[in-house]
């Protein structure tokens, strides 16, 4: 057994392990351009961060007066996103180092994400993280997505772990709230540091308000070791 005892670590994917928002933006930009909206900007995209693609395309139809159905827009955006995810998703270097550090100590790990199983699989394969993270739960597989605790509880169940022994890494306030609802500790690394004071983050065991710029594999491991004692 490692220095971490019975500890189990569960990772959110988008914005936590990998920086996938640029791919979501590019997929959105291409789809909207195809439907007569040529000037969709990153600032426009930021207003949809944290909102599911299904909800986003419905909002586009109203905002831009699009004639295409929501189903058609969703399929087109998802297809483009998957193509980009397979080749262009960047894993955060310190997060990758953290995963490798935990793997070397034989710490059980899982991914619990709001993305589809197909998207999760493509990202993990494309970044090589699938070599370490073999237990994966998508919100598509449980009754309720975050901030409900379902994905985290299912990840613990698949690993045979007690929720009290689990630590979740999250970048979004609804995810931090979901970890708390699951009875798990949470290390929160906000994707948008300006949102670090969002109520959901108030439940985190450790909040790094500076986000990824503040996260290091070594300090996170040391914190885990201290919490395991």
Walkthrough of the structure:
With 229 residues, the protein is an alpha/beta fold. The chain is 45% helix and 12% strand. The chain is built from 9 helices and 8 strands. The strands form 2 sheets. Strands 5-4-1-6-7-8 form a 6-stranded parallel beta sheet, with helices on both faces. A two-stranded antiparallel sheet has the order 2-3. α8 (173-181) links the parallel β6 (166-170) and β7.
Structural class: alpha/beta
Gross morphology is elongated
Count of helix runs: 9
Percent strand: 5-15%
Residues in helix, % = 40-55%
Separation of the first and last Cα atoms: 13 Å
Number of strands: 8
The largest β sheet comes out as:
6 strands, parallel
Low-confidence residue ranges: none
Strand order of the largest sheet: 5-4-1-6-7-8
Q: Overall pLDDT, averaged?
A: 92
Sketch the topology as an H/E string, one letter per element: EEHHHHEHEHEHEHEEH
Instruction: Kindly provide the radius of gyration, computed on alpha-carbon positions and rounded to a whole number of angstroms.
Output: 18 Å
